[in-house]
Amino acid sequence: MRTTRRVKCSYGKPPARVPFIPLTDFASPVTMKKYGVTPGSATLDIVNKADRDKEIMVLAKIYWGDPREKLIEAIDTIPLTCLVMGSRGLGTIKRAIMGSVSNYVVSNASCPVTVVKHSPPK
């Protein structure tokens, strides 16, 4: 039995409505051009590995706008029962000026949020 996981990206200019896109279609050049996105190869590698190794179906959903607001919107509209997100590890000054997406989501989400801290390569 396969379970379903969803991946969200926020790039480019929005079309009228974006459906959930199966991972196999999301990685195709035609789909990337249609939605004006270029997902990072590391992101695609991670979700492809999860799809293969954990036998889950990965679906992508593209959002445009402020990542803080769009993540909260996704939690409520999909709906998500939990969210795992990364942290870029900004310093105190940059975080104070730019704001922290992960701090905002942890404070405003209606579901449990796990933040995975960025660790620089050794």
Automatic annotation (TrEMBL):
Domain UspA: 47-117
InterPro entries: Rossmann-like_a/b/a_fold, Universal_stress_UspA, UspA
Any single Pfam family the record assigns to this protein: Usp
Protein name: UspA domain-containing protein
